[in-house]
Amino acid sequence: MVNGMRRARLFAQALRVSVRLWFWRRTRAAPRCEHHKARGRSQPERTGLYVRIGDDREHSEATHIGVALALVILLLATHAAWAAEPALQTAGDSPSWGWLGVRIRDLSEQEMEELTVLYGLGEGYGVLLVDVLKGGPAETIGLKAGDLVVAYDGRPILEVRALQRFVGATPVGKSASLTVLREGKRRPLQVTIGAMPTEVVAERVAAEYGFAVRALVGERSASERGDDPVVAVVMERSPAKQAGLQIGDRIVRFNGQAVTSLATLGALLRRQRLREPLDLHVLRQGNPLSLHVPPAIPEKSLP
Q1: What is the distance between the alpha carbons of residues 226 and 262, in angstroms, rounded to a whole number?
Q2: Which of 3.40.718.10, 2.30.42.10, 2.60.40.420, 3.90.550.10 is the CATH number of 90-195?
Q3: At what angle do helices 56-84 and 29-38 cross, to 10 degrees?
Q4: Cβ contact 44:36 at 8 Å
Q5: Cα–Cα distance measured from residue 45 to residue 234, given in angstroms and rounded to the nearest whole number
Q6: What pTM does this model have?
Q7: In whole angstroms, what is the distance from residue 194 CA to residue 172 CA?
Q8: pLDDT averaged over the chain?
Q9: Model confidence over 148-193: pLDDT tens digits?
């Protein structure tokens, strides 16, 4: 169910961009109408979706065909992201994950529209680099904050999750191709994927299931310690949310093993396989609860 909702969101994103393109192209016909009126030509005749000004109907038809092609391209990119999700399972089985060394975010709807207006129908998607970490693979090849990653190993990138999973699934030390949009131009780059730092792996695995933890702060009972892991974030439409995990829950057992500190939980998370569920025992306002968290990658998504 969670996987299907993500697919629906990506489809809606592609459709929104294409519809906005169509309306933007239509509004650009207005100045052309005034130009024809000033030169003494007859007023344009509106016929359905078209504005007839001599041969401009053919131009409008070509525009609509271009928008339709843009929709097809975006939907194909969306399908590539869906199909790539199971590839991360390989990384989940190995002791290390691929790492690029960047902080990234998704584009807003306004940013997607602006990119399309500025650079044409072929753009309007990608993942924005917010920060490039010192000493990481991304810094080595000259990536900069503000670069837009639009493809990884030839596969279009529509959202943060897709890039994270592609990179995470890449064996450490392997060379991969990146395509970035910088100053309106696409630039092909080659990067050697590094190993994700150990302290980051546990956070990443937890994020795949849709939650994050922190140390217990504030007043504590006699049985609580300062390094007890407490849920700090639960992501919408995630396996953790589906299972009923809540902010403030204190995790005391993980897959049947006692959790005595953040370090203990981190070690257990690093060994977790994404295709397997989590059995969590938590304390919520002092009351014990057992929660079954679905796999981060559903079995039906595997090849």
Answers
A1: 10
A2: 2.30.42.10
A3: 170
A4: yes
A5: 55
A6: 0.64
A7: 5
A8: 76
A9: 999 999 999 988 888 988 998 899 999 999 999 998 899 999 999 9
